[in-house]
Design a protein that fits this description.
The chain contains 5 helices and 5 strands. The protein has a 5-stranded parallel β-sheet, sandwiched between helices. Helices cover 44% and strands 18% of the residues.
Length: 136
């Protein structure tokens, strides 16, 4: 099942090339266009310049800027706060999960995850957020 949407770009920021490849493959199979970056600073710079994303999938631990800090930035910018954010991390602590939701993450996905888990999560996010993210 492909996702139909006016803006089908997904921001993927993860310093692990294997995870980036896996997530890129999943996003592409859903009919979306992946925009991949390998560190938090690059993702921050892109988001400051471009808010046209259907979702963001951010790794917690990246060089220069962590995923949690990116989420906090996104939730302070009106043009970015509508973008659903999935935080992926190998750290499965309850505190980090609570902190990520408090910062504004839409979903928390512990590593390792299966392609099926991410596909289902993205489908749910897109179904929930489509009406509010369509251009007027």
């Amino acid at each position: 099942m492909k996702i139909e949407h006016s803006s089908n770009r997904i921001l993927i920021a993860d310093d692990d090339p294997v995870i980036r490849y896996l997530v890129t493959s999943i996003v592409t199979k859903l009919g979306c266009t992946p925009v991949t970056l390998n560190d938090g600073r690059a993702a921050f710079s892109l988001l400051k310049a471009d808010a046209d994303f259907q979702a963001a999938i951010l790794d917690m631990s990246m060089p220069f800027l962590e995923g949690l800090d990116l989420i906090r930035f996104m939730k302070t910018e009106k043009r970015l706060m509508r973008i659903p954010v999935v935080l992926v991390t190998a750290d499965q602590s309850i505190k980090l999960m609570a902190d990520s939701f408090a910062a504004g993450a839409t979903a928390f996905l512990p590593k390792p995850f299966t392609p099926h888990q991410l596909q289902n999560l993205l489908r749910m996010l897109f179904a929930k957020n489509m009406p509010s993210t369509r251009a007027a």
